[in-house]
Design brief:
It is a single chain. About 40% of the residues lie in helices and about 25% in strands. Helix 2 runs parallel beside helix 3, helix 3 runs parallel beside helix 4 and helix 5 packs across helix 6. The chain is globular. Strands 1, 2, 3, 4, 5, 6, 7 and 8 form an 8-stranded mixed sheet that branches. By secondary structure, the protein is of the alpha/beta class.
């Protein structure tokens, strides 16, 4: 199985050179697409340890993973937050070690202008939130209201932070590496005579 690393900030193809120049860890769509081309349809593991970044770049990688002919496995090695979670949702399977952190949140941006500009940007951000929620719905099967509520948890970009067990319970992660069931919540079964 071939591997590609999605570490550091998710950036656009045009901005990647700046991060490379300053030796700042980053990933852009071209990095992943190049690895996919080199894998030539073989199974591909995407190793993820990223706090996210550019949503458009994350969506481009998500789309490329969805189109890939081979099997794809996203393996979260540290944490997946923001746009990195969108990328993970593009893989056929998402695996994570027990110590990871997973975070989803409302889309954010910087904007200047008068009250009309701010009102317009608010509607743009709400539409972007729904777009991201669509991706999460396809992965988890949760309804839009639940997902948007999770994304709105906290203030600012804090969003909803989850450990591996909680992310698996919600359906963002399919498998916790090395878990033989010991991380599962105990199940109590009762009957009318009990």
């Amino acid at each position: 199985m071939k591997e590609v690393t999605v570490n550091g900030t998710i950036v656009s193809n045009d901005d990647k050179w700046i991060y490379d120049w300053f030796e700042i860890e980053s990933c852009c769509p071209k990095d992943v697409i190049k690895a996919m081309d080199e894998a030539e349809g073989d199974d591909l593991t995407i190793l993820v340890n990223s706090g996210g970044g550019d949503l458009d770049a994350g969506n481009e990688i998500y789309s490329a993973l969805k189109r890939y002919q081979g099997k794809t496995v996203a393996e979260i090695t540290g944490y997946a937050a923001s746009a990195a979670t969108v990328i993970c949702c593009g893989a056929d399977t998402v695996r994570a070690n027990a110590g990871i952190q997973y975070m989803i949140h409302n889309v954010s941006t910087f904007q200047g202008g008068d009250h009309r500009d701010m009102e317009t940007m608010a509607s743009v951000l709400k539409a972007a939130d729904r777009s991201v929620a669509n991706v999460y719905q396809l992965k988890t099967g949760l309804d839009e209201k639940t997902i948007l509520g999770m994304m709105s948890t906290g203030t600012g970009n804090m969003g909803k932070w989850m450990d591996a067990k909680e992310a698996k319970e919600y359906g963002f992660i399919d498998e916790i590496i090395g878990d033989n069931g010991s991380l599962a919540r105990p199940i109590s079964i009762y009957n009318a005579y009990g």
